[in-house]
Amino acid sequence: MSLMEILMIVVPSTLLWAAPLVFTALGGIFSERSGVVNIGLEGLMVIGAFTAIVFNLTFVDTFGNWTPWIAIIVAMVAGAIFSLLHAVAAITFRADHTVSGVAINLLASGLTLFLVKLIYDKGETDIISQGFNKIDIPVLKDIPVIGKIFFQNTYWTSFLAIIVAIIVWYVVFKTPFGLRLRSVGEHPMAADTMGINVTKMRYLGVIISGALGGIGGGVYAQSITSNFSHSTISGQGFMALAAMIFGKWHPLGAMGAAIFFGFAQSISIIGSSLPFLKEIPNVYLLIAPYVLTVLALTGFIGRADAPKASGTHYIKGSR
Amino acid sequence: MLKRFNNILTPIIAVLLGIIVGTIIMVVSGYDAVAAFTALWNGAFGESYYVGEVVRQFTPYILAGLAVAFAFRVGLFNIGVEGQFLVGWLAAVWVGVAFDLPKIIHLPLAILAAMAAGALWAFIPGFLKARFRVHEVIVTIMMNYVALHVTNYIIKNIITDNKDKTDLVKESASLRSDWLQSITDYSRLHWGIVIAIIGCFVMWFLLERTTRGFELRAVGFNQHAAHYAGMSVNKNIILSMVIAGAFAGLAGAMEGLGTFGYATVKGGFTGVGFDGIAVALLGGNTSIGVFFSALLFGALKVGALNMPLEAGVPNELVDIIIALIVFFVASSYIIRVFLDRFSKKEVK
Amino acid sequence: ACGKSDNNKDTSKGGDKEKAFSVAMVTDVGGVDDKSFNQSAWEGLQKFGKDNGLEKGKGGYDYVQSKSDADYATNLNTLARQDFDLVFGIGFLMQGAVEEIAKQQKDHHFAIVDSEVDQPNVASILFKEQEASFLAGVAAAMTTKSNKIGFIGGVEGAVIERFEAGFVAGVKAAKPEATVDIQYAGAFDKAELGQSIASKMYSSGADVVFHAAGGTGVGLFKEANDLKKKDPSREIWAIGVDSDQANMGPDIVLTSALKRVDNAVIDVSTKAKDGNFPGGKVALYGLAEDGVGLAPINSKAPNKAAIETAVKDWTDKIKSGAIKVPGTRAELKTFSAK
Amino acid sequence: MNFVIEMLNIRKEFGGFVANDNITLQLKKGEIHALLGENGAGKSTLMNVLFGLYQPEKGEIRVKGKPVKITNPNIANDLGIGMVHQHFMLVDTFTVTENIILGREITTGGRIDLKKAEKEVREISERYGLAVDPQAKISDISVGMQQRVEILKTLYRGAEIVIFDEPSAVLTPQEIKELMQIMKTLIKEGKSIILITHKLKEIMEVADRCTVIRKGKGIGTVNVSETNPNELASLMVGREVVFKTEKAEAKPGQGVLEVQNLVVKDPRGINIVNDLNLSVNAGEIVGIAGIDGNGQTELIEAITGLRKAESGSIKLNGKDIINQTPRKITESGVGHIPQDRHKHGLVLNFPIGENMVLQTYNKKPYSKSGVLNFKEIYKKARTLISEYDVRTPSEYTLARALSGGNQQKAIIGREVDRNPDLLIAAQPTRGLDVGAIEFIHKRLIEQRDNGKAVLLVSFELDEILNVSDRIAVIYEGKIVAIVNPKETSEQELGLLMAGSNRKEAGEHSNA
Ligand SMILES: Nc1ncnc2c1ncn2[C@@H]1O[C@H](COP(=O)(O)OP(=O)(O)OP(=O)(O)O)[C@@H](O)[C@H]1O
Ligand SMILES: Nc1ncnc2c1ncn2[C@@H]1O[C@H](COP(=O)(O)OP(=O)(O)OP(=O)(O)O)[C@@H](O)[C@H]1O
Ligand SMILES: [Mg+2]
Ligand SMILES: [Mg+2]
């Protein structure tokens, strides 16, 4: 295989893998930047995947080609609503954020499978007929070399993820909302003395994380698995969490980390066809993405500092 | 006095609330809740067989819970129990299959191998945290996947000749007991429960009663103060992960030498490690708490298997109930507020 | 010896004549709609139940889905305790559990699919997957234009190896110059891996890809459908496994290598009901026993008729024993279709 | 009367505990009004009520004669009330400008207009003489600078009334001087100020009137021009207070600590301790005077093993202890009262009793072959608690629940009790009231009189002058002068600390 061919395979598949992780990791950023640890990303993805698939199956005749897009909007809303549970527990009820997040994960998988059995009377849904499809991006696909690698045989959702990451970066670092969000996650009491409603900001952070996690799940299910079952979301939420930490709670960093994960995965798949990797036992390629991540963290990323107040409760008047 | 009472009451109320909400969900979805709970009860305690199975399930849950709780007490979040569990399982089986030794040596050796494997697997994130300040959450997640693939590879290519399953461990390395099986009507109950209970005691004693535990807890609460006081923060971080990993490896040994007696190639995670997180958190990261929450989990999980058959209710309902219980325990602050209000009114 | 134990069983159970024969199965974590062998087994069980006037539930036919590996034994035991006359364990993962429970519940009958358990009260159901995938290989070889064909395996193991060896043998037999790119995903439930592998295979020139990878294979269909949708003129095909997966993509599913777990389940159940339970034996299901086969060829396939003829020929040759399809890589090395 | 703020009969309870009991405070326009009281008297609470962080149970607040309800800080801001908190309310990772505009951002098209904001910040800071770099990160600037940012925050919001809660507790003498100047400027610009401080000298210097509270109750308001420090102190404490700590002549013995050519690098690689020489003898207290950031912290951390030294030697009783572990150093006879009691001194989530054996838990009788003996631990704790007058409900109470002063007493008890040859005390009285300070000073001197060496680091020149037998002035990582407290003055010290050499400093103070 020529390098060009390799890239033409690796890049789109990298981006395909990365997209759901990017959305979800961005969600995690909103939550954690507001000071609420969100280990429930996995559960939020589950909710998103479930909602998107059920919606897609139910309304595909009504909405036709637009179904997957509308489905991710519905998944977004479902994720946002579901994340309210985490918000209420972690912010209002002063639950330990991690415990509450674990509860979210357990609840999401239990509830969705229960509903699948209730609705369809079986353990998993049918396959959707209208998912996200491969496309060539008009105009850009004709750019020499670059066009072939980046803009052919790819998915709109991959580019949407990148665009959303840039928007999130802008929102978090360039707007008053972002400044306030971050201040609440770093030093809620300081924010309070500046007249910022800490509780409101934290609720917003969590709800947005639910919305983005929902999108992540919806994108994953509709562009990759095409149905919903117990194994549709199995660890992607944790990978997104890892991407968020890897990316140092920075939207573009998280995007980069997610793309790195996607890349490592793709390499593990294509590796067996590359001449210089062919002789290596498969197990090395299978563990490569994870080992590479650890090495990368150890070697040149180093320590990552979470927002200072993340995981803490803000109780007015306490010190 | 009242406070202590409330401390015990809160989790009980959380469990009740979980069951109540679960009931509501069932009623709303048109299932027969009474039949479901009857089936759940029967499936967990209805026959001596099921009691044995509950205890069998309870055993790795305790140890996986301890593995999470121990690290948590030192301020580390060990999501890697699943991986440590898998390597422990494999190591125990490997020793159990490969040697021919008297039981008095073979069994402890197999168990030690599991602990060592789990400890080694946890040492890596601990070391990276201590040495390079790499976030243990990511490393432990990654180590889970590595464990899954590596153990599969070893089972297929090293222990067996391209098979999916190892031989049974030798009798001399088995935790199984005909007697335990016979009193529980052929359940897979094995001696591991004794080890798990010892594990609870060890964790309690180590953390609460020893100088080493004093250090570990100090590091967990305030690394700067621990450093100031002459404790080695890095050493304690690594040590806590190693001990947590040993617990997780031990949990794997329970499966490898007890419940299953062999190791298989796995398509995905067993879930025991992740359930361990919930067990630990529900148990407030104390050993006694872990003991009781593991019991609850074990009973619910085993009992749930009976629900579809006997009551036609999807067993995911139990997952929902468990999630709700964790949720309510997490929100115990609000339960406490209500309790306080309630008891104040009583006094007046 | 086995036959004897059966007879013992029958006499001991002879007392309650009113009690209808009941049968149940335990699935692995996949569940009865995994579009793979659990589903197929359950379909067989349902058919058996209907044909024999049984009701779903205790005393009739039923299934239990496992939530983890640790549940297999509990579930098998529970079903035995509920007095189902025959309990199936579906999948090689259940081998250990079936063996163990069978030893304890000596007066219950068990059957295991895809693995062997040497106990007098257990029937082991094995398939000659290689025969079905051989035919799939023939179909693939006769369809490919690029002479590049792909094979996606789930997790490496004896069963999937049979699929692999048979498939490659079929390709070689029909078109020696065609090559097969073989890749394992390492999982049966990772559609995304299946999709990435398929993507790689199609973009490096393969035009027919066969999967024996359970849920991972869903990704293959997704990829093929995607490519087809994007460029309807492109000729690419996917081949399904276990059950007829034609509905996964009417335009791209060429055929499926069938593994008739349903037939085998019905067969063993019927035998057990009639007192001929093949306890302690391996029941081997191949083309001849109607235990494996090839699904109808997609009507949009370019040379459908020719494929059908060839498949028919090879089927006859295999059935008659004229050729023996290799079931392992080692056998494949020495295999020659002549 | 022309009052801008009137707090009338304010009562504030915390779950039954009355923190403010019927307190009245009236602030005239254009005055600096001091608020004085012991630790825990309720000063911060009262101000938090005014700032809208707490809601009072009773009482009325009037702004310019109009009754108001201040339910959150926004309302306080709108009413022109700004507060510089005792513990800074700054987001470390933000820049100066971001901290100032937070909540009142300047935007163009939805985006924060940092350029414009920075310009505005610069304008205000120039107008009030509060030079800061608007683009600097909070974590990179000194405490004094951070306080300026706090002040700027209130001014940016158009505050007419500025509350300062213990502003000088964290400042160097020079910075305090500047702060006093700033306050005067603010008054000139028409602002009114409430100033909380434990330092009577400051009150005498800048305040017009002073309200005293004791244990949550208002004692009264006095005109500063008509009173003196002694009167204020006894009003506050309710008894006579001795200021100058009594102490006998030092009888220095052998050298205990010998530091030679010590170099310590900070994370950026700069020699923060730069070829430093210092010695402390048995039976004397050596005070290190210096402006924050001149290497004091690093010096102490290097001596105690908390930080790696680059080169040089540190000898304790003649034995080299450089770059040994904190444990080894502690065990060779060093006691350390750390500068930051929350960060280093205590495990806040441990019971106060267990904190008492933080270094000795592994020694007999507190443990035997690795097993703790709680009976002995808590026995020891009870002794120390009563000996050092640590006010705590019980030895099982979490350290977190104790007030700062009592936490400090617990630490001092623990360190002194180990009977170290060298006791290092870093900022031992920061933020404490006069009574507590007096107690701590006595203990330090007691150590000296027992023939131990004491090394005291403090930004409070009063403290240094009062307690030390010798003063070492640190500047840019070097000891630039050793002076006798009896033969120097605050001015001379101040100049030495600012880098003038001995001769110049002497000339200046003589002049
Ligand atoms: N959030 C709170 N919850 C309960 N009690 C509190 C709280 N804040 C303060 N208190 C109580 O109110 C009293 C007054 O505290 P406050 O902080 O106002 O004292 P202060 O005069 O500012 O002391 P310091 O000089 O140490 O700053 C304290 O002794 C404490 O017991
Ligand atoms: N959340 C709280 N609940 C109960 N009491 C509290 C709370 N927060 C503070 N206090 C009490 O308030 C008092 C003063 O606390 P504070 O931290 O202001 O002490 P301090 O002397 O000012 O210490 P520092 O030197 O750290 O400022 C203490 O007695 C403490 O017990
Ligand atoms: Mg105060
Ligand atoms: Mg104070």
Write down the Rg of chain B.
21 Å
Structural class by sheet pairing and helices of chain C: alpha/beta
Instruction: Tell me the greatest interface.
Output: A-B, 48 and 46 residues
The number of helical runs of chain C is 11
Instruction: Count the beta strands of chain B.
Output: 0
Roughly what percent helix of chain B?
Answer: over 70%
Helix fraction of chain C by DSSP (H/I, runs of at least 4):
40-55%
Compute the separation of the termini of chain C in Å.
Answer: 41 Å
Number of strands of chain C: 12
Major sheet description of chain C: 6 strands, parallel
Would you identify the regions of chain B where 5 or more consecutive residues have pLDDT less than 50? Answer: none
Mean pLDDT of chain C: 88
Oligomer: heterotetramer
Strand content of chain C: 15-25%
Structural class of the helices, strands and pairings of chain B? mainly alpha
**Low-confidence spans of chain C:** 1-17
What does this entry show, briefly?
The complex is a heterotetramer of chains A (319), B (348), C (338) and D (511). Chain A has helices at 3-33, 41-63, 67-92, 97-120, 146-150, 156-174, 176-186, 188-193, 198-225, 236-246, 251-270, 282-301, and strands at 134-135, 154-155. With 319 residues, chain A is an all-alpha fold.
Can you characterise this structure?
The complex is a heterotetramer of chains A (319), B (348), C (338) and D (511). Chain A has 319 residues and is mostly helical. Chain A has a single domain (3-303), classed as ABC transporter involved in vitamin B12 uptake, BtuC (Orthogonal Bundle). Chain A is built from 12 helices and 2 strands. Chain A has a two-stranded antiparallel ribbon. The radius of gyration of chain A is 20 Å and the shape is globular. Chain B has helices at residues 2-28, 33-46, 48-73, 81-98, 103-132, 136-159, 178-183, 192-209, 211-221, 223-228, 233-259, 272-282, 287-304, 307-311, 316-330, 332-347. Chain B is 78% helix and 0% strand. Chain B is mainly alpha-helical and 348 residues long. Chain D has a 6-stranded mixed β-sheet, with helices on both faces. In chain D, helix 14 (404-417) packs parallel to helix 15 and helix 17 runs antiparallel to helix 18.
